[in-house]
Amino acid sequence: MAVRVLDKAAVQPRSRFNLSRAFTIPRSPGRVTIATIRLRIPANSTPNRVELVATVGVRGVRGIAQVLFRIFRDGREIFNTRQGIESDPESEVNYVVTFQGIDRNVSTGNHVYTVTAENLTANTRADVVGPISFSGLAVRTRS
Questions:
Q1: pTM for the structure as a whole
Q2: Measured distance CA(78)–CA(51) in Å, rounded
């Protein structure tokens, strides 16, 4: 299968683990935006796909949190995954969560992709501590 790169974007809001800049992942239905990128799909570029990869450093603070990560395109959810985050200092409290989503046959135009996180479990707490990165690669595909 031949491919042609249409656009690419990447952000790295945090390049390392840093407890002093940690922020709490809110309890669902609240959520926090982790990172945002913009990609442009030119006219006459179908079929296509956008390959998205996110990495988020998370720390368990209380209980075993179930964190729901979502990727949105222009405000519409296109991907989600869950990760359990423990807070037992005798076990493990620091995690680096990496996931990939693929968006197929995206329409012509400029698109905003956003990664969010929310905590699904009551009476628990998980914080984003870094690193954080989010990248997207738009390619035209031909069979």
A1: 0.95
A2: 12
Domain that holds residue 47: 2-12+22-142
Whether 109 has a pLDDT exceeding 80, the answer reads yes
Number of domain units in the chain: 1
| 33 in any annotated domain | yes
Mean pLDDT of 48-66: 98
Q: How far is CA 101 from the centre of its chain?
A: 9
Over its C-alpha atoms, the chain yields an Rg (Å, rounded) of: 17
What average pLDDT does range 56-77 have in this prediction?
A: 98
- Cβ neighbors of 5 (< 8 A, separation 6 or more) are 137, 138, 139
CA-closest candidate to residue 73, choices 15, 138, 6: 138
